[in-house]
Design a protein that fits this description.
The protein is of the alpha/beta class and about 700 residues long. The chain is built from 24 helices and 30 strands. It has a seven-stranded mixed beta sheet.
Amino acid sequence: MNRNKYKKKDSTVHKKIDFFFVQDQQTDFQSLDSGTLKLAVAKPLKPGWYSVSKRSIKNQSILGTDSVLYLGNNKPLEDGIVKYFSDFRFKGIGQTTIKKIVEIEKVHFLFMVNKGLLNFKDKVDLTIPQIKVIDKVFSKEFDRVFLDILLRDLGLRFNQVESIRDNMGSEFITNLLNEPENLLKRSVEVDGKDKTVSRINILDLKNLLNRFEVPISEEKLILMSVEDFLISEEVQGGHTCRNVYYVMNQVAKTNNLDKYKVKDYLYRNKEKFHLFVKEEKEFIETLDSQKRDNEIKELIEKIINKKSKDKKLQFTDKKISSQIELSDEQLNAINGVINSKISIITGGPGSGKSTAIIGIVKALEKFKKKIKICTPTGRAKKRLLQMPELEYQDASTIHMYLELLKRSKANFDFMIIDESSMVDINILRKLLTYHPVNSSLIFIGDVDQLPPVSPGQPFKDMISTNKIPTFKLTGNFRQESLSNIVKAARNIIKGMEPSIYDDINGQFSFIEVQGNEEFELIRNLYFEQLPKIIDEKDQEKIQILSPQKTKELGTINLNKSIQQILHKGKKSLFGNKNFEFYAGDKIIETSNKNDLDIMNGDIGSVVRKSKDSYIFEFNGIEVEYSFEGIQSLELAYAITVHKSQGSEYDAVIIQCSNAHSFMLKRNLIYTAITRGKKKVIMVGQKKAFLNGLQILVRRDTNFRL
């Protein structure tokens, strides 16, 4: 087979491994791809299958055993082979078919595929088209296939397999055998750059170490457990540091050890972590987190210390359009930010942030400054560009902006970042790393909204430092004209119960129902009552919000419930691993597709299937997806509150149930309510709502200036 036909210029990550079989008393071993091998330094090996990094093979000799992993004799690799060849890329070949073949051929099936399965067509129960599919995909992915199969055989999840394979490569074997703590880390260094890795947690790692009989001391296990716990707290809860005694207690529970023993090991190895005092309490963070915070601090200081050559700018135009007149506080904020290297504007709903952005743009245009506007999501960008005063601006998502920097240099005097409360600490570091030091940065957002989905809360932390010029908009000058939704939101963020209608006639309503009645009421509101109230023929401007994706009353089941009514009796066009899709279905992208200019959080609709392509509409433009691409799409009749950030809808239905009490917090309720422009209806149990008001989301972070 001509494998070179498919080869691409790859990164410096080495992915090639091989498998070889050792028979009793033999010193030469037969491998699947490298021919006959032997150890450079003779050493007895147990009979059975092994994997080895091809980097360790020179002139048919294996240089040492640091990268040689013993897989055993008990059906080694068979699970991995079945999982790999029954993947969605092998169309028309299911798990049952591959399993039957592997039960007969075992690992030899890999040898057959490696030599070209077409040469063994009489030995396998496959059609010629199926064989051609296998040969084609295997050839295309040859450099990584064996590693992929090994990782799948070890029981790793798909995202772990993909990430470890592409960022750590064959070093996985060396790390497992010699430096297992590296498998817990979030990033590895490749060609001088940090690459994010979907890591292995401590429980997975302990299972692997036991399976391969890799010796490890209690002390090292505890230190790895501390590192793992801190990383898990960051990934799952957004905390970039934690109270050291809380960490020690949790690690002690996990490992069935006395907490004082954990404390002894930890303080004996203090140099492996960063311990510090905050608010008179001792905290701990990983060295990676400390390094990241320090980098951001240095980058911000570098921009601030690069003094502008401009004289002080003074913008005095209050009337900036026939429709808009600035208030004194907006004008003060505008003059403040256009004269600062880094600055912040914060304010809640109805405070006038959007008007302030228009005012900043008008002011900067008056002084002949180049402007770049960035947003965390495509929907936030779309909302800004819908304003006539901004529709001509150079605006993009942050991810697309960073992607474009790979091809061209940044060229602007001021960058405005809207919805800054959604920006996590990792994205901020990337933004600042590539930000032109002569250009100014203006962060705009609502500090009371939910913190980012990903780690940290840099917008809030930057405000708390009191070292960056910050202007708070209140909108108090137009208090009388504020909607009931805005008034309710202002009470909620203070932990106070707002004025609520108990029917759907008010702008802000709460309808109390039992948990088993929620879906029925939500469907009735969505299909029948709300379209009439907001004078819409369909549900396009109505969005259902829920605190959670899973659970019985989460977005997954809500979406399927809505979909069943919309498409009753119809046949779906296609499906992915989670959903079936029908023509017209409302969908949401859950990853960044830079090549398609579709970002995480963008909402579109299903159009049609065309041969091997899948057509969707986003923002009035048809976009073509591959089968691999549609795996990240989900239904969007109901979305989580987190996914709704940066968007506004004419009407929102918010699920507020006892079943979600763990997630219901003041910031989440506030964020959900402020998505609605004309109508907000909460459905569920009022007790859950009132309890949630008393709980404020707090994140432990250590970002300071």
